[in-house]
Every structure is written in structure tokens, then in C-alpha cells.
# Entry
Amino acid sequence: MRHLSDTDRDIIRIAQDPQFARWLEQITATGGCAHPIHLTGSTTTRDADTGEILHHYDSRNEPGERLLVRCRNRRATVCAPCSRLHAGDTFHLVRAGLLGGKNVPDDVREHPRLFVTLTAPSFGPVHRFTADGERCRPRRNAGRCEHGRSLSCPTAHDSADPLAGQPLCSDCYDYPAHVLWNAHVGRLWKAFTDNLYNHLAARMGRTRTGLRRTVRISYAKVAEYQKRAAVHVHVVVRLDGADGPAVPPPAWATAEVLTAVVRSAARAVHLRTPYNLALGEYELHWGGELDARPLRAFGGREGLADEAVAAYVAKYVTKGAADTAIGLDHPIAALDDFTTGRLSAHVRTLVQTCWRLGGLPELEPLRLRAWAHTLGYRGHILTKSRVYSTTYGALREERAEYRRDGSQPIDNAAVVTDSNWRYVGSGHTLGAAEFAAGVAEDIARSRDLAREVMANECEARV
Ligand SMILES: [Zn+2]
Ligand SMILES: [Zn+2]
Ligand SMILES: [Zn+2]
# Structure
């Protein structure tokens, strides 16, 4: 068997194990997780009154005397199966807020709902990519910048072109403004949501307090990087009655009114950086490209399909910075940590700018060095308002109740549960990794197909 690789030998060893079938069940239960956590211990459930044992589970009877559980990493580059599970949860969370389900009444489908995209302003011209072969900047007589670089570009870039998103002149490009913008997306977002109620109140001739007695605005938002590595946000916005999704909004609160208010609320955001910077003061605002579209009402023909929007949003949540134009996965410990990577010159300069600005005492609160790998952005990828829909925790709980060795959940009030678990390791051997990858592939193929089709339908239209 000299010709066998170490992996092949390990695969044979695993497959010949008498407990192989049970082991494969465990791998399947983790969804083919790439770095499962190994635990030993037991859980005992007793009747609270009689002390009778209702259920007992012990890892001693498992292969290798251990239980494997998911790593639950959200990054596709770290664990593809777990990131897909997370995307699935995001899909259900966003979907419930749009179509009902998971304790949200189905009637939310009749409430005004929008899909909104807020972008960054320009920090200097970049090479545009197009899907239809349209040329980048085919301007005649566009001239040259002060660094002697042409301000026109006759090429058609597709999204795989390494030039797409790169500045026409890196010396003209305003790198500090770009980094400071990414670092303030959270504040820009807060200013925008504050404006929403104020502008809606002004439009309807009411006070903000009076308005809050009749309507409530809920949202789920996902942050993403554009090709030029500026953050932009996609948002699902919904208008409810004062108490949330169970109550219809008043008749005057239409999708048209909400669209107008979203536009004016975004336009009105103007913040000044509160620092005394030698490099000048920066004004922070959203970019001019604002997209706000009503979602198709139940049975209607106009607008984006709500199912497709939920799939589209979920697709972005598993993309860490590493999967986008950026290529960085982990915080950077020192500036020479990253220079040798596969990063574009543009992203490298953004990281260097984060590092440089991060050294200025007046910018200390932005922690730009700690967040250099996200190019200054400190927020979560998905955030939602409190009453939008369900939570990740609730979705995990629901899944756990189905899962636990097929046993039915026992009524909590009448039982005591005794759990004792210990971490004993993580990851796979070479052969086990192959089995896990196979399991993950099977699951992915059968489950994600429909969702992918829906996301693409939406992507083609935004
Ligand atoms: Zn995992
Ligand atoms: Zn170009
Ligand atoms: Zn220039």
C-alpha cells in the first residue's frame, strides 16, 4: 500500500471502524463542519418531583467517547458549512420580517416594505465594472490629473478584472476620507434612523411623540463592501402600527410616503468629524446613489419579490471581508503583517491609511489599527431593530429542540436538567476532513439551490 497517501490511509482506518456508521451520523449532524468542537460529558433530565430519570445522554458510548458539535463560525473562508447555516438563519430572520412566520403575523406582507441601498460618496474616480460590456470612462479630451495620469479609460471591465474598483489616480484619491467614512458608518446610520421619524412626523404635520403613538419603523440592515472597498448598506425597512408587526399601520402610511421619507432622511444626514485634524475637517454624508424600492405587495406585480430580497440579504452576511474585494481575514498585528498578500494596491493603501491615522491621538476612539483589516468599519454585518422579527438565538433554540437525538423537548417546568461537558479538542484528522467535506457538499447541493436562484433573481434587478 506504498502508493496510498496519508489521507487515503486515514480514510480506510475510519471506514473500517466498527462505529463508523454512528460517527458519520455525528458528522452529518454537524452539517460537515470543517472544525468541529469535541466534547465529553453527559446530560441527565429528571422529573422535578419524583427524581425519575426521563432522559440520559453520555458521550461514553460515542465513537472515540466524544460528541462533535459545530464550530459555528460565520465566515465562509473559515468554515463553509457553518457559514451556510448562519446564512440560512439570516434568511429566516429577514424573511420572517417580510413575509411573517417565527411569531411574526403573516399580515406584515400587507405593510409598506422597502428595500433600500445606501452608498458611500465618491473619494475620487475609480474604474467601473459593468456586466454588459459598457466602457469604463470613455471621455474624449478628459485630460490628465496633476500627476499626469489620464482621467479617461476606454476599457470595458468585468467584475473579475483586477482594475475594477481601483482608482484612476491613487495620488488624487482621498484615502483618509475613505477610511474615515468607513469608520463612521455606524454614526451615519444612527443619524439616518433618527431622521426617519422626524421627517415622517414633519411630513404628516405631527410631533415626533405623536407620530410614535401611531407608527413604528422596523428594519434589518446588512453591510457590504463595494468593489472600491467602501462600505455600503442594504436595508429592509417596514412600517408597522405603534406596537409592531401585529398591528397594521394607519392608512396614510403608504410605501410611497415611506420611500419619500427614506430619501429625505438620507439626504439630510451631514456630520462633521469631531476631531481637530491637521489633515482638515471632513464632512460625512451618504452618497448620491440611493436606491429605495417598494417590495411587491401580496399578489401584486410591481416591485421586488420579497422572497428574493431575503435570499439576497442572507447571501451577503456570510461574506466576511475576505470574500470581497478586500482579502483580509484577521486583525493585523503589525504593518508588515499584510504587505506580502494578494491584496490590491488600493486595499493596501487603505490598510496603510488606517494604520497611519490610527496612530494619531485625536483619532484614538476610532481604533483604526485594530480595525485596519476591515478598513475602518467597526459594525456588525447584520443588525436589526428590536421588533423586526425573530433572533438568531431563538432560531438556534428551535433547531436544537428538533435535533437532540431525536427526542421530543420535555416540558421545562416539570424537569431538572443536569449537564456536565468538557472541551477535549477540535478539528478533523486528514481522512475525517474528507468525509466532512463530502457531507457538507451533499447538504449544500440539496438545500441551497433554491435560495441561490432567488438571490440571483434579486441581484439581477438591483
Ligand atoms: Zn463549522
Ligand atoms: Zn477603467
Ligand atoms: Zn492624480
User: Anything to note?
Assistant: The CA atoms of residues 127 and 164 lie 5 Å apart. The mean pLDDT is 84.
